[in-house]
Amino acid sequence: MKIDRHGKAKVLSPEEIQRLFTSGLTTVRDRTLIAVMLYTSCRVNEAVTLKIRDVYNSRGRIRAELIIRKGNSKGKLATRSIPILEELRRFLATYRPTPSNEGFLFPGRWGRSHLHSEYASLIFREACERVDIEGASTHSCRRTALTLMSNAGIPLRIIQEISGHRNLEQLQNYLEVEPDQVRGAIAALSMLSLPSIQSSNFDLDSANNTELFTE
């Protein structure tokens, strides 16, 4: 869990996500911004640098896929196209970005440039404080999305295509392992069939009396 900006950002539970969107985030813009990060697993800088035309077509209709440009991604590895889920589409249908010369989806103050990533992080932290969510940051959206896909059995190579990680090792660092998953993994060992001590011919008394070392 992340404390004072140290450690990994927590993976949000479904109940925490509900609280965040119903009571924590107070404006349509803020809910749409966080929904974009949650439903595309993108980084905060990738979200705030989206252009309107990366999400809406020239007629103002929501595209089938959201485009994350190579130049705005970490490492500038490749442009990514992320399908827009119906859940995200509902947020985007409600949101009406302020037109600006640069055409950013989330414009900055007075329509200049784009919303700064640090300010977006502040919005998220304040929303979490309102609903008593500790240890979360904007990275929680990304970790939550990637972990959910992994837990659903989606192959890591496909998740990597969505997340834009350079390699699978980097991706695996994002994924959360739940205690129930560890218990389930150990429980799978019950398929091993070993003879019980009672049913074996092994004599405990004689074994205890056996000298381990002889002169």
Q: How would you summarize this macromolecular structure in one to three sentences?
A:
With 215 residues, the protein is mainly α. 44% of the residues lie in helices and 4% in strands. The longest helix has 14 residues, at 117-130.
Low-confidence stretches: 1-6
Q: In the CATH scheme, what's the topology name? A: hpI Integrase, Chain A
CATH homologous superfamily grouping:
Intergrase catalytic core
User: Main β-sheet: number of strands, strand sense, barrel status?
Assistant: 2 strands, antiparallel
Structural class: mainly alpha
What is the CA-atom radius of gyration, in angstroms? 25 Å
Q: How would the global form be characterised?
A: globular
Q: Let me know the number of strands.
A: 2
Number of structural units classed as domains? 1
Q: What is the string of helix and strand elements?
A: HHHEEHHHHHHH
Give the name of the CATH architecture.
Orthogonal Bundle
Strand neighbour order, sheet with most strands: 1-2
Q: Briefly, what CATH class?
A: Mainly Alpha
Helix fraction by DSSP (H/I, runs of at least 4): 40-55%
H/I helix tally: 10
What is the mean predicted local confidence, pLDDT? 82
Terminal CA distance reads 57 Å
Oligomeric composition of the shown chains:
single chain
Residue fraction in strands: under 5%
Describe the protein's architecture and organization.
The chain has 215 residues and is mainly alpha-helical. It has one domain (14-168): hpI Integrase, Chain A (Orthogonal Bundle), CATH 1.10.443. The protein is 44% helix and 4% strand. It has ten helices and two strands. It has a two-stranded antiparallel ribbon. The longest helix is centred in the middle third of the chain and has 14 residues, at 117-130. The radius of gyration is 25 Å and the shape is globular. The N and C termini lie far apart (57 Å). The model is unreliable at 1-6 (pLDDT under 50).
